[in-house]
Amino acid sequence: MKFKVASSILALFTLIGLGVTIYSDFESYLSAVVSILLYVLVPAYGTYGTWVKSRIAILITLVFFISQSVRSVGTDSLIPHIAPITISFPVGDFSSGQGYLIDFFCYFYGNISSLAT
């Protein structure tokens, strides 16, 4: 049951990420490629791996979501958009373009992924 729930959440994350990357207007080609890699391909691989209970895919998904749990926000960031599904809280001074987003969805999903292993 826990594998089906985890893979369903990842599939939803992948589909929303695909929609965000398709309809976004990226300033550079590199930003589009990185966004597709982070928000479509890695979660899609995690969805497949969670469905077939592959420990390597679950570990890659776990590392991805833990790495996305705290993000720097500024004008010089490579990816201009935040994650497709997010429950973020700002920390720092955003008026000068400096600050961090602490994403509790990524943190909690990382914990769910670790329980699925």
Tell me the major beta sheet.
3 strands, antiparallel
Number of strands: 3
- Terminal CA distance reads 13 Å
- The proportion of residues in beta strands is 5-15%
The helix content, as a percent range, equals 55-70%
Q: What structural class do you assign from the helix and strand content?
A: mainly alpha
Q: Please, what is the average pLDDT?
A: 78
Compact overview of the structure:
With 117 residues, the chain is mainly α. It has four helices and three strands, in the order αααβββα.
Label this structure with key terms.
three-stranded antiparallel beta sheet, 117 residues, 9% strand, 3 strands, 4 helices
Characterise this structure.
By secondary structure, the protein is mostly helical. The protein has four helices and three strands, in the order αααβββα. It has helices spanning 2-22, 29-51, 55-67, 104-116; strands at residues 70-72, 88-91, 100-103. The chain has a three-stranded antiparallel beta sheet with strand order 1-3-2. A hairpin with an 8-residue loop joins strand 2 (88-91) and strand 3. The mean pLDDT is 78.
